[in-house]
Automatic annotation (TrEMBL):
It holds the Pfam family His_kinase. This is Two component regulator with propeller domain. Gene3D superfamilies: Histidine kinase-like ATPase, C-terminal domain, Immunoglobulins, YVTN repeat-like/Quinoprotein amine dehydrogenase. Residues 767-845 form the Signal transduction histidine kinase internal region domain. InterPro entries: Bact_2-comp_sensor_kinase, HATPase_C_sf, Ig-like_fold, Reg_prop, Sig_transdc_His_kin_internal, WD40/YVTN_repeat-like_dom_sf. Keywords: Membrane, Transmembrane, Transmembrane helix. GO terms for molecular function: phosphorelay sensor kinase activity. The chain crosses the membrane at residues 724-746. GO terms for cellular component: membrane.
Length: 978
């Protein structure tokens, strides 16, 4: 509930004591009604529960109040009936509802318990409702209904107690109040006829006085019985009347009573009465809430008084208001707007200046009278009241200067002035009056000042003074009768000034919007603003109490300054109990402070100003997660909801200044720096992730410390897919998926590479075959030349044999050319047949010999076909054929590191000599054959990685002594099989 929702009423004491005087002691009372959230304007009773909430019973349900918000409960919330007549709070923290249907129900742990949700409360009331409740030592609850039957509740069942058979009545419980503790403060009786206690004495007139401490202790410690308009203290032995309404002018029936410290509150069907210091002999009675039906009274733990009414809601008197006295137009003053105040030291009379030329006086008996000054020339508000001569005070009004005799209570006009702004009396008694544009020394002279406009005046001594204007500070002297600027070069003093005070050699300057300047010897010594804790920079009046304190009236309360230290020691505002923050004037006398405001006069003992330093109680109102609302608890456990907001609604129980309650929450468990301050009572946490959290909540009231934090343990549990094992499985599946994808990619790459390798191998084989086939024409050409030569030499038989061997060789060559590898045995057989043919062609001009390592015979060796034949051919044709004598050819085969080593050694004319006699065509042919062999070796390397080698050595030039011929060495990659 916002502060504006409080209805602040200053209610007048309309009736006095036996003397019939109109007294001027008021209370500031707040009213709460339906518009503020109360369930109904008719309220039967009020009770404070164990947690500190105030509950109100109404015909349409109950209201729970924390000082700011009402939470209403009705049948839809679990009540057995909306018409709740009474309430009772037990020691277990349960709040019992007395409904019109007589069915028992109570509130506990945020839930209304009734027979619908609690089988222990099943009960047949037979239409009789509960009137009173009691509790025994075992914390069992007993009710007395309208049929004088006792109903018991022990936590297991509800039923008629066996004592009901003896028809117990209210006297049974009153006689046994040590066993059955009453859960209400007072009892209504029609008479004291207790048939089971005939010896009890009744005293309509008390034999004791209220200054008897023993009697007062008895009243406080025993049940109070209300009988019509009288109050009795009840014991088994006697019932003694300690209050008779007839003696106090109260004729109506008393509805409820409240004993508050030494004060007594009386509620009746027509009004509320307050007797201050009743239990110390006080005789002044205050009548409040006239024409209000008071249904109940409650004093809460903080000392606040709650008043429930029939049809007018609830009224509240804050505890601190008992320290204040209030005056306005509701209790004797002309209006609520106050401009000035003074208390006469001699007579003790309080003088209050108001608008329309009205002076209110209140004598020591608090009797108020109203006096009028001259109002013929306008509104004539009395803005200043100053001590003057014996039995007289000065009254400064808008249009004149007056005196008031406090003994004869008479007003006298001294002199009329137009637009009077201020008046001052110097130590010698001279009176200086400042109007809008002139300064007048009473019974002296007048000095005019056309510009700027004068606002205030302060005497420096008997002969000089300072003026405040709307354009700065000025100085005047009686001797020269002149006025001149006093701000010099300091532009800070050239501004609108509201009031001045000369204190012990220092000039205090209150400005319109720049706070206070303190001057000495025309120089600024100190500047005091809101930055120095001043209530406001708008100063409306300065008042010095003569004992070291300067009071600054502002538009936001009053500041008290220590003039010696030049520091603000205290601020007093409406939050502390003033009727308004718009302060017009201040007066201090003998510990009493009088504050004139735009909403009335407030006076109190300044050393006893109450400060509520007790931190408020923090409570949890609701917990919401996603779209669901849960009962308040300090532990919350729930499965994670995606994109769901977690929200806590909370509050603080504070009945005084609830709008100034601050909250702090901590969600990081960093209590040193992790507090977040808020004025909201709802904290949202969007999309709270799974985990364990701690939320700490605390609050503080105006001027109190922070409360002890309330801790909420929050556990947001992960869904199954958020569990560590589920995440592990997901991660594992993800890794397996990635591995599968990588494996698929690698397999595709390998397959591609394999296809590429196979393709390259196939190409290499085809290239090798093509190269092999490329050599075949040379051999065929040479062989046909040999046949041709034999035919020309008429050696037909030899030619035919040659052709037969040639045909066999050709068939073998064609078979081998289709293969990528042939066995070494096939190769040697092919080479042998080839060499035999070449011997025939060259007329047996050479011999040959094969030398094969024995190890080669243990394996089947495969080599590329037609790779040795070109070397043998070159050795015969270019080494042995040109030789003039017979030659020899040696072919050696050995194994060297898994390669076939083949050497073709001839003793022909040698490599260099052969090249020198060759024609260009022959050189090209030999070069082609050797390059083809080298290329074949390179191709073989490309598809199986084996490295071959071809080397041609001229033996004569390579250190073989005088040997001639050529040695060709070749390392051939092989495939070896057992």
């Amino acid at each position: 509930m916002h502060r504006a929702c409080y209805k602040l009423l200053v209610l007048l004491m309309l009736l006095g004591g036996t003397g019939g005087k109109v007294l001027a002691q008021g209370f500031m009372i707040r009213n709460y009604n339906v518009k503020d959230g109360l369930a109904n304007a008719t309220v039967y009773t009020a009770v404070q529960d164990k947690d500190g909430f105030i509950w109100f019973a109404t015909p349409t349900g109950v209201s729970k109040f924390d000082g700011r918000r009402f939470r209403n409960y009705s049948k839809k919330d679990g009540l057995t009936d909306n018409d709740v007549i009474k309430l009772a709070a037990d020691s277990r923290g349960r709040l019992w509802f007395f409904t019109l249907n007589g069915m028992p129900s109570y509130y506990s742990n945020y839930v209304v318990h009734s027979e619908s949700n609690d089988s222990t409360l099943e009960f047949n009331s037979h239409g009789h409702y509960m009137q009173y409740a009691f509790e025994n030592g075992a914390q069992n609850i007993f009710f007395l209904n309208t049929n004088n039957q006792m109903i018991g509740y022990d936590g297991r069942k509800t039923g008629y107690d066996k004592l009901s058979e003896t028809h117990p009545d209210i006297f049974f419980f009153l006689r046994n109040d040590t066993i059955y503790k009453p859960l209400q403060s007072a009892f209504h009786l029609l008479s004291f006829k207790d048939i089971d206690n005939p010896d009890q004495k009744v005293f309509p007139v008390s034999p004791y006085t209220l200054d008897d401490e023993t009697f007062v202790a008895r009243i406080r410690g025993n049940p109070v019985v209300i009988m019509r308009n009288m109050l009795y203290s009840y014991t088994v032995k006697d019932a003694i009347c300690f209050f008779n309404g007839n003696d106090w002018g109260i004729k109506n029936e008393i509805t409820d009573v409240c004993i508050e410290n030494d004060n007594l509150w009386i509620g009746t069907q027509r009004a509320l009465f307050f007797i201050k210091d009743f239990f110390r002999g006080g005789r002044n009675i205050t009548k409040l809430l006239d024409n209000h039906y008071i249904t109940s009274l409650l004093k809460d733990r903080d000392g606040n008084i709650w008043i429930t009414t029939f049809g007018d809601g609830v009224y509240n008197v804050p505890f601190k208001n008992f320290y204040f006295n209030y005056l306005d137009n509701t209790n004797g003053l002309y209006s609520h707007s106050i401009f000035s105040v003074l208390r006469d030291r001699k007579t003790g009379m309080l003088l209050v200046g108001q608008n329309a030329g009205v002076l209110n006086t209140m004598d020591s008996s608090r009797h108020i009278r109203r006096h009028n000054v001259d109002t013929s020339s306008g509104r004539n508000s009395i803005f200043s009241i100053l001590p003057y001569r014996n039995d007289e005070v000065l009254l400064g009004a808008d249009n004149g200067l007056f005196t008031f005799n406090t003994v004869r209570q008479q007003v006298k006009k001294l002199k009329g002035f137009e637009n009077m702004k201020d008046v001052d009396v110097d130590p010698s008694g001279k009176v200086r009056v400042a109007t809008k544009n002139q300064v007048t020394l009473l019974d002296g002279y007048t000095v005019s000042l056309q510009e700027p406009l004068i606002t205030s005046i302060a005497s420096r001594d008997d002969t000089s003074y300072y003026l405040g204007t709307n354009d700065g500070l000025y100085y005047g002297a009686d001797q020269t009768r002149t006025i001149h600027p006093a701000f010099g070069q300091d532009e800070r003093l050239r501004q609108s000034i509201k009031d001045l005070k000369w204190i012990n050699g220092y000039l205090w300057v209150g400005t319109s919007d720049q706070g206070i300047y303190v001057m000495r010897s025309n120089k600024v010594q100190k500047h005091i603003t809101t930055a120095n804790n001043l209530a406001s920079d708008i100063c409306q009046q300065l008042y010095y109490d003569g004992i070291g304190r300067l009071y600054v009236a502002t538009n936001r309360g009053m500041s008290i300054i220590d003039v010696k230290e030049m520091t603000v020691t205290r601020n007093i505002t409406s939050n502390d109990g003033l009727m308004s923050d718009d302060i017009r004037g201040v007066y201090y006398q003998q510990g009493w402070l009088y504050v004139a405001t735009s909403n009335g006069l407030c006076y109190f003992q300044d050393h006893n100003l109450p400060v509520d330093t007790v931190p408020p109680t923090v409570y949890i109102n609701a917990i919401r997660y996603g779209d669901s609302t849960y009962l308040p608890s300090t532990t919350f456990v729930h499965l994670y909801k995606r994109k769901a907001s977690f929200e806590v609604e909370f509050g603080a129980i504070a009945f005084d200044l609830p709008d100034l309650v601050e909250y702090q929450y901590n969600f990081a468990s960093d209590t040193s720096s992790g507090w977040t301050t808020t004025m909201s009572n709802i904290i949202p946490f969007p999309d709270l992730q799974p985990g364990a959290y701690k939320l700490l909540l605390r609050a503080r009231k105006f001027k109190s410390d922070w409360s002890q934090p309330v801790t909420i343990s929050i556990s947001i549990l992960p869904q199954w897919y958020q569990q560590w094992w589920a995440r592990g499985i997901v991660i594992l599946l993800g890794l397996l998926g990635i591995l599968a994808i990588l494996r698929y990619i690698v397999r595709r790459i390998k397959q591609g590479e394999k296809r590429k390798t196979e393709y390259n191998r196939r190409i290499a084989e085809l290239e090798a075959k093509a190269l092999t086939n490329q050599m075949n024409p040379h051999f065929i050409f040479n062989s046909l030349n040999s046949v041709q030569h034999l035919i020309l030499e008429k050696e037909e038989k030899q030619a035919l044999n040659f052709l037969a061997d040639f045909a066999t060789l050709m068939r073998q060559m064609l078979n081998n050319s289709r293969k990528s590898h042939i066995s070494l045995e096939e190769e040697t057989a092919f080479l042998t047949r080839y060499l035999e043919l070449e011997k025939i062609r060259f007329a047996h001009s050479f011999t040959y010999h094969f030398s094969m390592e024995a190890e080669l015979k243990d394996y089947t060796i495969y080599i590329p076909p037609m790779i040795i034949q070109p070397i043998v051919e070159n050795a015969i044709k270019h080494g042995l054929a040109p030789k003039n004598s017979a030659g020899h050819l040696e072919i050696k085969l050995e194994m060297v590191d898994d390669l076939l080593y083949c050497s073709v050694d001839d003793d022909g004319i040698g490599w260099e000599h052969s090249n020198s006699i060759k024609t260009g065509r022959l050189v090209k042919h030999e070069s082609t054959a050797l390059s083809v062999i080298r290329e074949r070796l390179q191709i073989i390397k490309s598809f199986n990685g084996s490295v071959g080698k071809l080397e041609i050595i001229d033996k004569f030039k390579s250190g073989f002594g005088n040997k001639e011929g050529t040695l060709v060495e070749i390392l051939i990659p092989i495939v070896k099989m057992l």
